[in-house]
Specification:
Shape of chain A: globular
Distance between the termini of chain A: 47 Å
Order of helices and strands of chain A: HEHHEEEEHE
Oligomer: homodimer
Largest sheet of chain A: 3 strands, antiparallel
Number of helices of chain A: 4
Strand content of chain A: 25-35%
DNA sequence: GTGATTTTGATAATCATTCTCATTTGTGAT
DNA sequence: ATCACAAATGAGAATGATTATCAAAATCAC
């Protein structure tokens, strides 16, 4: 594993949640480990192929990455302030497996994210 | 409903499956009903808000649209051939609402996508 | 160390999507 | 029908994430 890649993955580990490539780029810069944007993308791409990160897309199409395997869980994210709560969902896991089986699919993974407004928002 | 929007949705109906905005644009052109690209995007955007089309993203981030007859549902997508099955998940809806309530979140929406290998794949 | 191979990063190129704004079309009242 | 005003349209520019390019720097094998 190249040095850059390990640095990128370490950053993902620290954040814990889903982060975009651009965010990783900024984080590394602030951490004093400036890394080329292209390099960040390359690292995330490889990691995705190797299944060491989960990838999902925001509504606007931007890709978000998360280190996977570290205790599977989901997120409840406030659209307004970004507050993120980790939530456990064994119900969802079971549901996903059942659905997969019923449709003859194997090696099924799933992406489940919840978005809303947290209690602080009074809109 | 504006004329353009109905033309766009008609095209989606004809194709049946998932199509990109760019493809719709080309199809309309070939059909002799040339429509501005911006207009195609606007029509699809509105339709998405109204939940009259399903939106999902290809791996490269391009958005795909499909006329959806029924209400809210999720997708089970084959990573290999792209085959997509619509799955209903009232269990998931309930779970999402409960989790949201427990955490004081309001107006919660969720993203749930399942990925796997369909029966045709013998890897 | 020397040369080959890989990795990196600055920048340019790509491409879907959104924005802008002038023009056209539809609508409603009179 | 006509006028006035709102909504829709389209051509092209602007945006922004991602990818490609390519020369310089780090790494490896010997």
């Amino acid at each position: 594993m190249s040095k850059s890649k390990s640095v990128v993955l370490t950053t993902l580990e620290k954040t814990g949640g889903f982060v975009s490539a651009q965010e990783v780029f900024q984080l590394l810069r602030k951490q004093g480990k400036p890394t080329g944007l292209a390099t960040v993308y390359r690292a995330l791409q490889k990691a995705a192929v190797e299944n060491s990160v989960d990838v999902l897309r925001k509504e606007d199409g931007e890709a978000l990455y998360r280190l996977c395997a570290t205790g599977h869980h989901h997120h409840l994210v406030c659209k307004n302030c970004g507050k993120t709560v980790e939530v456990e969902g064994s119900a969802v896991e079971k549901w996903a497996n059942t659905v997969a089986k019923n449709n003859g699919f194997r090696k099924v993974t799933h992406v489940v994210e919840l978005f809303g407004l947290c209690a602080k928002m009074l809109i």
